[in-house]
Amino acid sequence: MSALKSIVLACCSLGLFGVAHAQQSVSVTRADGAQTPLMVYEPVHTNGCPPLALISPGAGGDQNGLKYLGGALSADGWRAIVIGHRESGIGPLKQDIRQTRSIHGGVQELVDDANAYRARFMDIDVARSWAQSRCRAPFTALLGHSMGARTVQMEAGARNNLDLHADGGFDAYVALSPAGPDQVFPPQAERGIRAPMLMITGTRDSGLDGDYRWRTLAFDALPASGCNRLAIVDGATHMNFAGIGFARKTREAVAPLVTGWLDGLRAGRCAIAPSLAGVDVTTK
User: Fold this and answer.
1) What pTM value is reported for the model?
2) Which of 83, 106, 168, 224 sits between 20 and 30 A of 117, alpha carbons compared?
């Protein structure tokens, strides 16, 4: 990576400038006629059709979130699109919280909802179709945080207890705060995944079914492909990966971990993970 690109990526991950990338709000019609909102980050530099990165936010999130990740990918030459999943956005989450009378119960209700994932799959399909209609991307990646990571795991081919089957077909997958075994994913759910996957969690990234070590069980289940990778960011919380809270250290770690790994795959190799303070990386 050139010195200039490193500076651009660092500035994006720090949020030092918000206009380095062209940002466009788009609404597209999915298969069932519903509208899917997208936030499109066009690449800062490109030579031909850029690679495509679709980003799926967590429960309660929308297309306006994960700006640091969209900006970092844009600076690295990607067309990055953050997808708004209306059936699992803030409105449905608040409704589930009211019905269960607890935040934990409301989140659990939403992340166990098969129909919410079916809607997410349609959102992903229409976002990919919209981008590919502009030009055929030479490489495609699907990224997600929290419920978005669960969506990524399903799209990649993880077995699940909801009898859900996504189209998949991406060249690579990135799961921020992946889910371990629970009501949705049986033990070893990821053992059949063949596409390369990067999983990132933090030592304070607790979930509904355990602490960060529960999340690492999803990585343990992946086959040894030579480029599957797990990164653990010391001190990073669940919401830090969404860019919320005191998230600077997390953003500074996630941006180079993701772009470096994806750039290596695009070049046909498994890139060496960057050496980052407080980040433990395992590749298998």
Assistant:
1) 0.91
2) 224
